[in-house]
TrEMBL record:
Pfam (any one): Zn_peptidase_2
Keyword terms of this UniProt record: Membrane, Transmembrane, Transmembrane helix
Record flagged with keyword RNA-binding: no
Sequence intervals crossing the membrane: 114-135, 142-162, 196-218
PANTHER family in alphabetical order: MEMBRANE PROTEASE YUGP-RELATED (PTHR36434)
InterPro entries: Zn_peptidase_2
Signal peptide: none
Name of the protein described by the UniProt record: Zn-dependent protease
Amino acid sequence: MILIYFAIVILVPIWAQFRVKGTYKKYSQVSSSSQYRGAEVARKILDDNGLYHVGVEETRGYLSDHYDPRSKTVRLSSGNYHGHSVAAAAIAAHEVGHAIQDQEDYSFLRFRHALVPVANLGSNFSWILVMIGIFAQMSNMLLLGIIFMAAAVLFQLVTLPVEFNASNRAMDQIVSAGIIRNDEERETKKVLNAAALTYVAAAAVAVLELLRLVLIYTGMTREE
């Protein structure tokens, strides 16, 4: 049973990453009908929504695309910034989806931003407290570690609606703007769905790990 658990915890994220990279590689070689580069897709959708103040920049790294709410900037990795593929259009539109969420004060995005300090603290210190609690048989220390970890897990769970909503906005925007044709919607959705898998996998593994620690804690308190 323990081996099955750890196999799931290790293999699910690897499978999700493999799926993302495979889907991205496939559709990064499929040109979109509009021939818009990722940077042009982002700029057009931003302008169509009145977000003229939001910048579009190229950033280093592979699939390092993100929206920075502090500087109000959509940053696209080189392949997506310059590429005119279906994958580049999908990812650029997705990141702009976050910019639109920011502009509209989307509740889950605000909640996620508020959780960042607590989630970072939980990620950095939870395992230290958990390990001390388990090895020293200190249930109170283990409970404190679980509480810190729960904050990080909550952050991952809140991330799910944020990401899915950004993808839905992306589809609406690139279709209405004529960036992709109707027959390209299926390919675009595959790219967005594959990317979402990484967040789903991460959240699922985090919840499983949290539940495992809760079971360890309940067993420890019974022995006390």
